[in-house]
Design a protein that fits this description.
Chain A is an all-alpha fold. Chain A has helices spanning 3-29, 34-46, 49-74, 82-99, 105-134, 138-158, 190-208, 210-220, 222-227, 232-259, 270-280, 285-309, 315-328, 330-337, and strands at 184-185, 188-189. Classes of the chains: A mainly alpha (355), B mainly alpha (333), C alpha/beta (504).
Chain lengths: 355, 333, 504
């Protein structure tokens, strides 16, 4: 491994270790055994084929959510709307999944995926278009759209698309048709492979295409980008659409490959974890894959951890917040590692609501 | 208030007149219901204006705070836990404010001290607060004592329509009203306020006349956290009387919209908060009485949709200028 | 007690990462005198005044204020001891009033509340005493530049300054406003104030200074006075070798019109009319210099011509094509090179490599982009050519541009914009803030382009640059072209008066 590569992973790795150490302290404070808890956590996430399947299933939407944040980051945009984009993607994929009958899998599944992705793209696009046309800050708009999406998907699942099978009282849609399901081969959910492929595609688009050059130029310096002839508004709008599409796809894969239906409240919080994952990956689409897997292991093992050590699964959220803190403030880690303050690029968005 | 801009003043008046006029109109039709709507308006506005003032003091100093949601939540949790343990509402309020100060200090340490991107820093607070409160929350716990109840302000409480809504409120609501006036005067007439506005507009200029920009930002973001902490205590101990997971429900974010809508002035923000509170209270009331048949989810969406429209329109007309140094860390030299 | 030394630096040294900004520098200022600090950009003038004002602390050496060796922990220490500073970029809060700006940091107050009435009285008294007229209730953002400078001076005097440090005070003033400032300074010295005057303009130094200290490369290279030297002597001291103030060039051979601006009106960011019915022509093979005090519509004119800003009225025709309202991409494609005024904001993308920046204007066209994919080999080849030909000092083409010096960034921009077949070159402040070697290099290249038949629109705030390079000079005042002169008729006095709006 080259020195620069080593440098670029040392901060995220240290952040993870620090997060786990402080998490262990909290577990101990609560009167439980951190050793038992973490062993159960890893066992539950990687111990056998079932655990592995669970981890990969958990990691899939996380990777999509991380990409939705990372790609927007490249254009200097902070997409806090992964949550809402994922929800609309999930619910509309479910709608297509159960609402249409008799299509062959080769048509039905892609159709459901595309509709989910489109729903996400529209959701992200609203924020992007508003930002491009009126300067409305994407952070405020995407946060608000999260709540709107939450209400909208709840309503769809509770009313028009409600599963009326038997005595069901839960706000959820019926199961999607078998033709719309994403298969799982042994312990490998195909949706995970899709996520990996999409992550690689994102990297390629950003680094190797003319469009990616424009996106990154807007992120670095929008004035210079405009000077160079880049249509900045179009890039802002289209990047948010792309980001929304990625999250929407994540929601669709979750519905079609894991849950089999949309159920209100099940996906809560997934979109926010995308922020942690994207920052952990330093906004690099390839880095999102290991970052997503890491969080996936924690989530997959959380229930086993609770069962065996009595530690509440919410400790995972706490550890994630700590990791996020340490990645966001690399100064702390640099000080710990006695690293020269270097060019390892602190993420800056240049906040301000107006521009 | 010398510096209250004419636009801002006009907005406050229009909002106030609109609310009062609507209130009279509805009161004529159904008195008790109108009273309930107005009470609901003030209840919702209290939390929003506290969050808006927290955001405003930060932004006037040049620091964006999107961690208000987390500050609300963490403070509500601590206030609830302390009251539930000690049986003292007052102890809960004090520790709630203290928690807000600590959260504010953490935001300042990240955003001002470590120069973490301000939006990321606020996000860290939000995620950390949600995680920590969920992790430590004990579902079996209850407040143990009754939440703060209303206090009648003598004959004022007997004024028709407005009396019950404004002058028969629990104590933290009165305190909030006082805080709105205090913060407004402080921001626009005090030495502290002049310096605060200066470091948000042109930190370099402030530094050359000997103002320690980063120290004042530290102080302000920390103090502002205390306001959000007070809001958290209000939420747990007066508005609801218990704690639940994620109970701030996005109102920390709505507060930012209220702040922008109120042009970063406390009076403006209170008017905006009352307006927001009024729409939700009105809808809730219609919902409750069955006067309007709209799915609850659509009613729930309303404030968020309104916020998006407000933010988009304010951008379009460019009528709300950000402090010039908003979001930028200050570096000497 | 009379003070002998008002302010002095004794053997101060200040090191920044990679730069020895001040090396064993000593200067002295006595009451009622004007000390001029002269030097090029990067000579260490700003570092020295920041040391004197307490913004930085010296690595070694002493600061003396009123005969006492002091240790300054910040500007407030300096202010407290009677040092006032007028910064090059005004340190005023635009949306606040004049009074608020002046008292900020030392507010008269009662129980924590600002006593505005008292503040107003004090400010009015000061303005009367020193003859510095200003509307104290106006917001600073609504005042003209010359008046804002008066506010800055009042701000220092309000703090009982008996030393006034002025950092490049005339950079943004018309020659006439400059003269007014020099009068004010003389009035101040008459009342006993000592003045440190930082500039790189020789004429002003000779006009106002009592003592002159010349800095170069962080060191004092000479101390003199106006009686002992002249402009040439000072210039030589400043750059360390005899300088050619004029650029060597032959007479222009104007060809067809390549840029025609007809009745153009453009608004600035705040919606105010910045360019007002301007008509101009640039022919192939000539340099049209646009002179004017900054902020008279130059920026908006350039942005409108290059497609970065909306035009409100009128037409811009480049090489026969009407490009009014066309996006920047289309303007560039016609064959327009643009050296932007603000290098860091528009010229380069700091996070991008030298290679990526070298194709910033053409990344989307073959051979750099094929079927939407970047052709990295072609981009690298092109970058190496530009680096070679334009003498860009960089470790490699993969180096991020943010680590290059200003002069090298500028050469990269010039190389990028020249390497295409262009018909029109728009050069805005092409040599701002770079070293003299790079300035000469860029001047030569601009003349070379002209001789190859390119039409050049040169906008510069440096009158010497305009007078040295231009074949014709257009003077912009308050958004209007007030005159277009042949280079032969354009002398400093005449252009200076026109820049001030005086019809000569």
């Amino acid at each position: 491994m080259t020195r620069s590569a080593l440098r670029s992973v040392s901060i995220p790795l240290t952040a993870v270790v620090l997060g786990l150490v402080i998490g262990a302290l909290l577990i101990t404070v609560q009167g439980n055994s951190a050793g038992t808890a973490y062993r159960a956590l890893i066992d539950g996430g990687l111990g056998d084929a079932d655990a592995l399947l669970r981890t990969l299933q958990k990691a899939t939407p996380l990777i999509f959510g991380g990409l939705a944040v990372a790609v927007a980051f490249k254009a200097g945009l902070f997409n806090i709307g992964g949550q809402g984009q994922l929800l609309v993607g999930a619910v509309f994929a479910a709608g297509v999944g159960f609402g249409i009958d008799g299509l062959p899998a080769i048509v039905h599944l892609p159709l459901a995926l595309v509709v989910g992705a489109l729903a996400g793209a529209i959701w992200g696009g609203i924020a992007g278009v508003l930002k491009a046309t009126s300067g409305a800050h994407e952070v405020i708009v995407t946060i608000m759209l999260n709540f709107v999406a939450g209400n909208l998907s709840d309503w769809l699942a509770a009313s028009p698309w409600k599963d009326n099978e038997g005595t069901n009282i839960i706000a959820r849609t019926p199961l999607v048709a078998p033709a719309a399901e994403i298969p799982t081969v042994s312990w490998m959910p195909i949706g995970f492979l899709l996520a990996v492929a999409v992550a690689v595609a994102c990297w390629f688009v950003l680094q190797r295409t003319t469009y990616g050059f424009e996106v990154r130029s807007v992120g670095f310096n929008r004035h210079a980008a405009a000077y160079a002839g880049v249509r900045v508004r179009w890039i802002v709008a289209s990047t948010m659409m792309l980001a929304g599409m990625l999250a929407g796809l994540g929601g669709a894969v979750e519905t079609l490959g894991v849950d089999g239906r949309f159920e209100a409240g099940v996906n809560a919080g997934l979109g926010f974890e995308g922020i942690t994952i994207a920052l952990l990956a330093r906004a690099n689409p390839i880095g999102v894959i290991p970052a997503g897997l890491l969080v996936g292991v924690m989530e997959a093992g959380a229930s086993k951890m609770q069962f065996e050590s009595g530690v509440a699964p919410e400790i995972i959220d706490v550890i994630q917040a700590l990791i996020l803190l340490f990645v966001a403030a690399p100064v702390i880690i640099r000080w710990l590692l006695r690293m020269r303050s270097g060019d390892d690029g602190q993420l800056q968005l240049g906040a301000g609501w107006g521009s | 208030m010398g510096k209250l801009s004419s636009r801002s003043a006009r907005f406050v008046w229009v909002a106030a007149v609109a609310v009062v006029a609507l209130a009279w109109f509805f009161y004529a039709q159904d008195g008790p219901q109108t009273t309930a709507v107005l009470a609901g308006t003030v209840r919702a506005a209290t939390l929003l204006v506290l969050g808006a003032m927290c955001g405003m003091i930060g932004e006037r100093s040049g620091v964006v705070n999107i961690g208000i949601e987390g500050q609300f939540l963490m403070s509500a949790f601590i206030a609830f836990t302390v009251t539930s343990t000690t049986g003292s509402l007052f102890a809960g309020v004090v520790t709630g404010v203290g928690t807000g100060l600590v959260m504010g200090w953490m935001l300042a340490a990240m955003a001002v001290g470590l120069r973490v991107d301000q939006i990321i820093a606020g996000t860290v607070l939000n995620i950390a607060a949600l995680g920590l409160t969920s992790f430590f929350f004990d579902r079996g716990r209850s407040l143990g004592v009754g939440k703060y109840g209303p206090i009648d302000l003598g004959p004022l409480a007997d004024i028709p329509v407005l009396g019950a809504a404004l002058f028969s409120r629990p104590p933290l609501t009165y305190l909030t009203m006082a805080l709105v006036v205090i913060v407004h005067i402080a921001l626009f007439s005090s030495v502290w306020g002049l310096r605060t506005r200066a470091i948000g507009e042109h930190p370099g200029a402030a530094a050359t006349v000997g103002i320690d920009v980063n120290r004042l930002r530290y102080l302000n973001v920390t103090l502002a956290g205390g306001l959000a902490g007070f809001g958290g205590a209000y939420l747990a101990l007066e508005a609801v009387g218990t704690f639940s997971r994620g109970m701030s429900g996005g109102r920390g974010f709505l507060a930012l919209a209220v702040m922008i809508f109120g042009r970063r002035t406390p009076f403006g923000a209170y008017a905006a908060a009352l307006f927001f509170g009024f729409t939700t209270a009105l809808q809730n009331q219609f919902q409750f009485t069955g006067a309007l048949d709209i799915p609850a989810q659509f009613v729930g969406m309303l404030p968020y949709v309104v916020t998006i429209i407000v933010v988009a329109l304010s951008g379009l007309f460019g009528s709300m200028r950000d402090p010039a140094a908003l979001g930028q860390p200050y570096e000497k030299g | 007690m009379t003070v002998d030394l008002l302010l002095a630096a004794r053997n101060v040294t200040k090191q920044f990462p990679g730069v020895l900004a001040n090396d064993d520098v000593s200067v002295e200022l006595r009451p009622g005198r004007v000390l001029a600090l002269l030097g090029e950009n990067g000579a260490g003038k700003s570092t020295l005044v920041n040391l004197l004002f307490g913004m930085y602390r010296p690595d070694s050496g002493q600061i003396v204020i009123k005969d006492e060796v002091v240790e300054l922990h910040g500007p407030d220490d300096a202010i407290e001891r009677g040092i006032g500073m007028v910064h090059q970029h005004f340190q005023l809060v635009p949306p606040m009033s004049v009074v608020e700006n002046i008292v900020l940091g030392s507010e008269p107050s009662r129980r924590g509340m600002v006593d505005l009435a008292e503040a107003r009285t004090r400010v009015l008294a000061l303005s009367e005493r020193f003859g510095l007229e200003v509307d104290v209730d106006a917001n600073v953002e609504d005042l003209p530049v010359g008046t804002q400078q008066r506010v800055e001076i009042l701000k220092a005097l309000y703090r009982d300054a008996d030393v006034l440090i002025l950092d490049e005070p005339t950079a943004v003033l018309t020659p006439q406003e400059t003269d007014h400032l020099l009068t004010v300074l003389r009035e101040l010295t008459r009342q006993g104030v000592g003045i440190v005057f930082i500039t790189h303009k020789l004429r002003e130094v000779l006009a106002v200074a009592d003592d002159i200290v010349v800095l170069r490369g962080g060191r004092v290279v000479g101390s003199t006075s106006p009686d002992e030297t002249d402009e040439t002597g000072l210039a030589e001291m400043m750059v360390g070798r005899s300088v050619v103030l004029r650029v060597d060039k032959s007479a222009a051979q104007p060809g067809d019109v390549v840029l025609s601006v007809e009745g153009l009106s453009v608004d600035d960011d705040r919606g105010q009319r910045a360019v007002n019915e301007v008509s101009l022509e640039v022919r192939a093979g000539e340099i049209l210099g646009v002179a004017g005090v900054e902020g008279n519509g130059q920026r908006e004119l350039v942005e409108a011509v290059t497609g970065l800003r909306r035009t409100e009225q009128g037409r811009v025709v480049i090489a026969g094509t009407d490009v009014s309202g066309a996006p920047p991409r289309q303007v560039a494609t016609i064959g327009v090179g643009h050296i932007p005024e603000d290098r860091e904001k528009h010229g380069v993308i700091g996070g991008y490599s030298v290679a990526e920046n070298s194709v910033l204007n053409r990344y989307h066209r073959p051979p750099f982009s094929l079927r939407g994919l970047l052709q990295r080999a072609a981009i690298g080849r092109h970058a190496r050519e530009v680096v070679e030909e334009f003498d860009v000092r960089t470790p490699g083409v993969a180096t991020p541009v943010s680590s290059l010096s200003g002069g090298n960034k500028q050469k990269l921009i010039v190389g990028r914009e020249f390497s295409d077949d262009i018909a029109l070159l728009v050069a805005a402040q092409p040599t701002r803030g770079i070293d003299i070697g790079a300035i000469e290099f860029i001047h030569r290249r601009i003349v070379e382009q002209r001789d190859r038949g390119v039409g050049v629109l040169l906008v510069s705030a440096e009158l010497d640059e305009i007078l040295g390079l231009a074949d014709r000079v257009a003077v912009l005042y308050e958004g209007r072209v007030v005159a277009v002169l042949d280079a032969a008729d354009a002398d400093r006095e005449r252009v200076g008066l026109l820049m001030a709006g005086v019809n000569a």
